Amino acid sequence: MSAESHDIVVVGGGTAGAFAAATAADEGVDVVLIERKSEETAGHIACGDAIKGKSTFPDVIDREYLREESFTNQGIRRAIFENPQTGESIDIPFPDGGAIVDRKRYGEVLLEEADRKGAEIHYDTVVQDVVQNGRVQGVTAKRNGERRTYEAEVVIDAAGALSVLQDKADFSGTSFDTNVSYQQFCSAYREVVEVEEPVPWDDAIVFKPTEELGYLWYFPRTSTEINAGLGFQMNKEPMELVDVLKRDLRDRPEFENARVTDKLGAALPTRRPYDSAVAPGLMAVGDAAGHVNPTTGGGIPGAAKAGHWAALEAIDAIGEDDVSESALWNYNHRVMTDFGKRFAAMDLYNIFGGAHDLDDLVGVITALPGQQLVDALGKEGTASMSLGLKVTTLFDTFGHWGLLYELYRVSQRAAELKDVYDEYPRHPDGFAAWQAKRDAVMDEVYAITGAEPKY
C-alpha cells in the first residue's frame, strides 16, 4: 500500500469540500481533496439548484466567474406555495431575490477554483477507512484500483450525508455528535425537464406539500429548463418518489411533451446541525455535519461557509501543533452562532409539522402572511407580525385557532432556542451544560406539539 502525507485531507468534492480545499490552498497549506467520482462526472449531484440570495459565498473563490458560468437564472423574486387541497396558490415575495444554478457546472467551477488555488485533487478515489491512533491521522482509500493511505494533521469530512468516515471513526471520549439516525434524513429525487414553451413562473420557485411531510418543487433553471423534484421524511411511510413526481407532471399543462434530460436521487439531513462536528484531527462540514435547512433542504450557502471556516480553524490548529478537540472547537462556535442557530430554530417547525395532518397544516399556512413564512422558514427561523396582521390572520384561520396557537408557542420556543445557540460555549468544558439548557427548550417543544422526540 502506498502512502502520502499532507497537512489537510479533504474528503468529498461538493460545496463544503471544495471551499475547504480552496481556502486551505489559498493560505499556502498542503491540501489534497479526495473525490470518489471521475473528473468528468464530479459536480453532478442531486440538488434542487435554488439559492436564496446571490452573495453569500466566501470570497476565497472567483464569485463572479461562478455566477457567470453556473447561475442560469438570477431573476427569482418570489416563491409560489400551491395548496394541494384547493389547487389555489399564494405568492411569497423574496425581497433579497434568489437564483437557480446548473448544479453540475457549479460543482465543476468550484473544483476548478480549488485547483487554481493550488489544491491537489484526486478523482476516482474512494475512501474506505480512517487512520486513527488517539486522534484521526488520515484515511485509507482505493485509487484506480490501488490501496493508498493519506496521512494528515487534520481530515475534513465533506463526504455528505451518512458519511463513511463517521461510521469508521471512534468518537469515544469526544463530544462529536453521534445522535444521528436515518429518521432525521430525507430521501429526495429530481429530474431536469425541458419544456416546449416558456413557463409563466420563471421568476419563482414553486412548492407543493405532499402527505409525507415533504414537498414537490419546480425550480426554473431557465424559462424552458426546470428542475422538478420531491422528497419525503424518512420517519414517514415511504413514497414512490418517481411515480408521485410523474403523476404531478402529467397534471400540469406546461409540461406537455416535456423531455427529461437528467435524473438523480440522494439522501440529505433534515435535522439540526451537529451539536459538535469536531474530534481530535477531524472536522465535519456540509451535509456530513447536518448543515442543511431542515425545512427546505437547502444547504449550499451553509456548506460554503462551513468549509471555509473549517479550513481556517484547521490551519490555525496546525500552526499551533495542536489538533485536539479543544483546538478545533472554535469552528463549532462559528457555525452555531451563525447559520446553525437559524437551522436549529427551523427544525422546530419540522417537528411541529410532523405531529399534524397535512390538511390542517395547509389550512394554517395558506392563511399566514407571506413575509412571516419567509421569516419563519427561511432566513431568520422566527417571525413576528403587527397587530393588524394578527387580527387578519385570526379571521382567516377560523377553525384552526388551536393549531395556530400551538404554532405561535413553537415560534416563541424558536426565538428562545436561537438565544441558547448564541450562548454556545467557546470550549468543550461548557458543552454538557449548554446541551442541558438546549434540551430543556426541546422538551417544551415536544410537550407543546405532542411529537415524539427527534433526538
Write up what this structure looks like.
This protein is α/β, with parallel strands linked by helices and 455 residues long. It has helices at residues 15-26, 63-70, 103-117, 164-168, 241-250, 300-319, 325-328, 330-354, 358-365, 370-379, 387-396, 401-422, 431-449, and strands at residues 2-11, 31-34, 50-52, 71-82, 89-101, 120-122, 125-132, 136-143, 146-157, 185-194, 204-210, 214-220, 225-233, 259-269, 278-279, 282-284. The strands form two sheets. Strands 1, 2, 6, 7, 8, 9, 15 and 16 form an eight-stranded mixed beta sheet that branches. The chain has an eight-stranded mixed beta sheet with strand order 3-5-4-11-12-13-10-14. Strand 1, helix 1 (15-26) and strand 2 form a beta-alpha-beta unit.
Number of DSSP-assigned strands: 16
Structural class: alpha/beta
Major sheet attributes? 8 strands, mixed
Oligomer: single chain
Q: List low-pLDDT spans.
A: 369-379, 385-395
Spatial gap, N to C terminus: 40 Å
Mean pLDDT: 89
- Tell me, what's the shape? globular
Rg value: 22 Å
Q: Which strand-content bin applies to the residues?
A: 25-35%
**In which range does the helix fraction lie?**
25-40%
Q: Which series of helices and strands comes N to C?
A: EHEEHEEHEEEEHEEEEHEEEHHHHHHHH
Specify the number of helices.
13
Key words describing this protein structure:
about 450 residues; alpha/beta; 8-stranded mixed beta sheet; 13 helices
Give the helix/strand layout.
Elements (H helix, E strand, L loop, with lengths): L1 E10 L3 H12 L4 E4 L15 E3 L10 H8 E12 L6 E13 L1 H15 L2 E3 L2 E8 L3 E8 L2 E12 L6 H5 L16 E10 L9 E7 L3 E7 L4 E9 L7 H10 L8 E11 L8 E2 L2 E3 L15 H20 L5 H4 L1 H25 L3 H8 L4 H10 L7 H10 L4 H22 L8 H19 L6
